[in-house]
Amino acid sequence: MDSSSPVTLEKIISLCKRKGFVYQSADIYGGLNGIYDFGHLGTLLKNNIRKTWLESIYTANDNIFLFEGSLLGPEPVWKASGHLDSFHDPMVDCMNCKHRYRADEIDLEKACAHCGKKQWTDIKNFNMMFKTQVGASQENAAVGYLRPETAQAIFINFKNVISTNRVKMPFGIAQIGKAFRNEINPKQFLFRMREFEQMELEWFCKQEEAEHFFEFWCQKRLAYHASIGIDPAKLRLRFYEKSELAHYSQATSDIEYHFPFGWKELEGIAHRGNFDLSQHTKHSGKDLSVYDEETKESSIPTVVESSVGVDRLFLTLLFDAYEEQVVEGEEERIVLHFAPNIAPIKAAFFPLSKKLNEPMLKIFHAIQKKGYSVQFDDAGSIGKRYRRQDEIGTPLCFTYDFDSETDHKVTVRDRDTMKQERIAIDHIESYLKNHLTKKE
Ligand code: ATP
């Protein structure tokens, strides 16, 4: 077996379309740039990402509370958080063709890549939040914004979580949910979108413990990405230089992945000091400090944050799993080497002939009832069916043939090694379970 040409963004986009992982949103109306819909396999993959993330957070500490905040927030929240005044990117337009660019991403000494002319407007700051009106009448409507990050909803509910869960510090609040950014130049498919999903943990602790927890969460988060099968050689932790830090941050590091377009941020981990809670205390007039029984003093907790995009991780998993393999004497195959906990479909079931559909459907339904995400396929040659499953990353395929009627066995084929063996029908579930949970 030989591995052929390298993975590219175009190959991933084509696979996602072909197999129904991702669709361009509102495609039949010409689409909406930077916004995507997810099909059957994409939804299953996203669910697995969310599930494994939650498991990894839960098992890292017993003091984690779940939260689901609203998507719309009133103006004062974004004033306090700083988003209203400083959540913008520099933008520049070509006066000739009207193409818009992020000013920090192009060389303004050069001509417009779109039309070849060099006629730039002045650089303007463009706020990336989506603004809307909440309420029916123009005069009385309040201004609301779609949240550009999920974190602020956690900060403003911080006291509610403490009082309703009788929680003591240190503790964390975890949230998965949508965020919206009117990016000037959405690009690289799911890497930079206008509507995307974040998985965030806000960890509240004492100031003197924050450095320890920052390091703790950096290591935990790095281990998570390896636990869902991402090649550790393509992951790195990059600590920010002092000059790169946000004014309130004491330390930040990105978990970066080596994409075909370079090392880029996959997840951000930040020691945010007590900036957020202090800002909301100041702007809301509500005391967000916590009383410490030991020291008999109140203080505003320090926050360590971990934030990763579901969609950016989705794209990372596809890049990492994709391989075009040249198999001796056979056609080239595309295979996604998804880790079993991430694979959207865990196993596929094939009757060798349609005449055998009935017994194989019985087995298929029994496994499905156990809660496994599985597929049944009776169309085309077995070789073609294997290829279809390889391309969506299904770890195992089971085939029922005419001998199965008498020996009560099926053939099981492994996606990665392509090895086949015969196992008893009664052992299918335990075989599947072992395979999906085995450590490499
Ligand atoms: P970048 O520098 O790439 O714009 P950021 O530093 O603005 O990212 P954060 O605000 O730290 O990103 O958001 C946390 C995580 O959310 C990122 O690490 C990324 O995984 C994801 N994310 C941020 N912006 C987008 C986007 N426009 N589309 C998809 N995912 C995003």
Specify the structural class. Answer: alpha+beta
**Major sheet details:** 7 strands, mixed
Instruction: Tell me the number of strands.
Output: 25
Distance from first to last alpha carbon: 20 Å
- In round numbers, the mean pLDDT is 95
Provide the gyration radius in Å.
25 Å
Describe the structure.
This protein is an alpha+beta fold. It has helices spanning 9-19, 40-60, 75-81, 83-86, 151-156, 158-165, 210-227, 275-284, 310-321, 357-369, 382-392, 404-407, 428-437, and strands spanning 2-3, 22-24, 36-38, 64-67, 72-74, 88-93, 100-102, 124-127, 131-134, 142-146, 171-180, 195-205, 235-239, 251-259, 262-273, 290-292, 297-299, 302-309, 322-326, 333-336, 347-351, 374-376, 396-400, 409-414, 420-424. The chain has 13 helices and 25 strands. The chain has three domains: 2-83 and 130-318, 2-Layer Sandwich (BirA Bifunctional Protein, domain 2); 88-127, no CATH class; 345-437, Rossmann fold (3-Layer(aba) Sandwich), CATH 3.40.50.800. 31% of the residues lie in helices and 30% in strands. Adenosine-5'-triphosphate binds at residues 149, 181, 183, 192-193, 196, 198, 265-268, 307-309, 311-312.
